[in-house]
Amino acid sequence: MKDTEKVQILKDLINIPSVNGNEEAVSDYLVQLFGLHGIKAKKIQQFPGRTDLVAEIGDGGHPIIGLSGHQDTVKTDSIKWADDPFIAVEKDGLIYGLGASDMKSGLAEFVIMMIELKDMNAVTHGTLRFMATISEELTEQGAKHLTELGYADDLDALIISEPTGVPLENIREYFQGGAFIDPHEYFKLQTALETSKQQDGEQHFIVGAHKGWMTYKVEARGKSVHSSMPSLGVNAVDSLVQYYLAEKEFYSKLEYQNSLLGKTVYAPDVFHGGEQVNSVPDYAYEQVKVRTIPEFPNNQLIEALQLIITELNETPTIDLKLTVEYSEDPVINFGRSELTHLLQENASQFLKQPLPLPTIGVSLGTDASEFVRGNPEMEVVILGPGNTSAHQVNEYVDVQVYLKMIDLFKTSVISYLQK
């Protein structure tokens, strides 16, 4: 396939709006594209207008590598973009557009790799299974559904092509804001940044571990009365504030830490209480998103929070309730690194970057949390052509990195399947 065709496929995907929905239009495009090259793809309807997609090449046997990407994007403020975010624009070697980095470039590279390997008849042993999901940005429901259907059960390795690039000038800040690297590797990286003449403008990393996450709501109920007689009622905001202070103290005292992922990260995001200024509020709530680590996993966190609520509810005027809205476990590779090593060994052949794909841990989450729930033994590799412009205005991907990473994956995957 010519480079111009590969770039056009990415542009086509960007031009399909799929902001937390409408993924079926992306699936339809991919089904047609796969079909042109003799690859049968199966749409799996999950909600109206929202479909997951699965396609395979190979002999159906092991090794089996899963290739996963999500079809949805985050919302964006179109007014702040230099150009229409729903129309791919190519400028100075970069492609701009919503999802260019997160992660339609990653999705496109897997599709192109599958097509090229099929056209070459290169997968004569083993299997490649492509899985495109819905709703990764909000709920990971697509990955959850595919996992429940068994698509992760027999995987030996899984690659998720989330954006993993960092502009060279932002490396220091990157590791001060939720990413974790071995100190020795960081020293090597800093030295390479100062001495290396091979510069793509970005340094890409393999994410070998990431935190889990959980969103929950704590509701407080009271008794509404006229604000001129507050002593006759029960102010739900007061109850919620008492809980919030206890919750904040609880998180501040957590000492659990993971060498790859750091500590649990607590972020109370939404508070709401009261409807009008002349009535004591009888309802208030808080919503929290917390990033979790294996040393203090989600189930233990839920138990601890429920204990705080149970103790506070012993006060007659306090009525609190905890609801866990979404819960995804941390992801860490335990001893499986064959594919990781192949990608690192081949990286210098294709990417002109200071170091060949150092392994790091990050605080963000991916669909891997759901797939690992179904198959905790497989190797998980998170690597993709995008960068830290994801979720930002004027999101972009470097065209040459996008093209070269396709070849990197092809070479490494063929070697892995031939082992």
Keywords:
single chain, Aminopeptidase, 419 residues, alpha+beta
As for the CATH topology of the largest domain, it is: Aminopeptidase
CATH class (first level) name of the largest domain: Alpha Beta
Q: What low-confidence regions span 5 or more consecutive residues with pLDDT below 50?
A: none
For the biggest sheet, the summary is: 6 strands, mixed
Overall morphology:
globular
Count of distinct strands: 19
CATH superfamily of the largest domain: Zn peptidases
Number of helices: 11
Structural domains: how many: 2
Family: Belongs to the peptidase M20A family.
GO molecular function: hydrolase activity; metal ion binding
Cofactor: Zn(2+)
Organism: Lentilactobacillus curieae
Overview of the structural elements:
Its cofactor is Zn(2+). Belongs to the peptidase M20A family. One of its GO terms (molecular function) is metal ion binding. By secondary structure, the protein is an alpha+beta fold. The protein folds into 2 domains: 3-189 and 331-417, Aminopeptidase; 212-328, Alpha-Beta Plaits (2-Layer Sandwich). The chain is built from 11 helices and 19 strands. A hairpin with a 2-residue loop joins β1 and β2. 45% of the residues are buried. The model has no long low-confidence stretch (mean pLDDT 94).
